[in-house]
Design brief:
Layout lengths: L1 H7 L5 E6 L4 E5 L16 E6 L10 H15 L6 E5 L6 H14 L2 E2 L6 E8 L2 E7 L21 H11 L6 E4 L6 H8 L5 E6 L2 H13 L5 E5 L11 E7 L9 H17 L1 E11 L2 H10 L3 E8 L8 E7 L2
Parallel strand pairs: 4-5, 4-6, 8-9, 8-11, 9-10, 11-12
Antiparallel strand pairs: 1-2, 3-7, 6-7, 12-14, 13-14
Helix pairs in contact: 4-5
Length: about 325
Amino acid sequence: MPFAEKELLKLDGLRVTGQSEDSLQFLFTGKLAALNKFKKATVVYLLSQFAVPRPKALLGNQQFAQLVNDIAFVMETQIFKSFRFEAAGKDSSVFGRLAEVLAKALKLVFDPEEGELMLRVRPFAEGWEVLIRLTPRPLSARSWRICNMPGGLNASLAVIMNELARPKPNERYLNAMCGSGTLAIEQGLGSSCKALVALDIRKDALDCARENISAAKLSHIELVQADATTYQSDEPFDVITADLPWGDVVGSHKGNAQLYPAFLENMARGSSDKARLVILTHEIKLFEKLLSQDKNWKLLQSLKVSHSGHYPRIYVLKKVI
C-alpha cells in the first residue's frame, strides 16, 4: 500500500490511522469528492460503525438514522440509481428487510447484483460496520475502458507498474502482451515518452485496445500485432511492461513454462543497455526460478499486490550489461 498511501497523503486534512496488507484506514476533513480522483487506489469507502451484536440491529431507529445519514452524505457527491449489499448472509430475511426500508428512505432501487451504491456489511471488534463505496464503480474502472478482455489488468496497478518503471520523455516504451491496452493507456495519460508501443499477438486484443485508446483520446500509441517472444523493433526499448499470462483465465501453466523464458530472452535482445522490465504475474514459483537462472536481468524489487482476489507480484528488473 505505500503507493496509495503516498498519493493519499498529498491531500490536506488527511491522516492515516491504520493499515493492513491491502487497505488503509484514514480520517479526512476535506471535501469528500476529492477522494474520487485517486489513480492508485482501487476503491474508497466511507466507514460507518455500529456497536451492535448483529446486522438486524441496524434496523433500530438510532442505527438506521445514522446509516441513512452516512449514505446520504456519500450521495451528495455522486449520482446513484440503485444499491446492493456485499455481506455474508446478504440473501437472508434480515438483509431483505434492510433493503426494503433503505430503498424507501433513499429513493433508490435495490438491485442485488448490479447495484451502483455498494454497501459492504461486516463484523469488527466492537460490533458491525458498513463500508459505503464512494463511487458507482471502483476507481480502477476507468471511464476510458469501453472494451475489456478476460484477465484484464487493474488500471490502478498499471499506474503503479509505470511509476516503478520510471519512463523518461526521451525513452522508448513497450507494453508487451498488451491485451486491452491498460498499461500503455495509463502511461499515455501520464508522462510522455519518445515512443509508446502496445504489442499483442491477438488481433481481437489489439481491436479492444484500439477502442480504449480512442475513448481515452490518445493518438500517440502505436499498436503492433506480433509475438512478444520473437518481435524485434528497428530501435531498442528502454522500458518494457507486461502483465504476463497467469495460466488460469489466460494461458496455461504448461505453456507459461515455455513462454516466460522465451519472453525474457527476447526482451533482452530488443532492449537498450539501460532497459527496465516491469512484470506482473501470479506464476511466482516459475518466474522466480527463471530469474535465479537468467543472466540478462537483475531483480531490483519485488512487490506483493492484490488483484481480483489474487495476490500476484510485481517484479522490477534491470538489464545486465
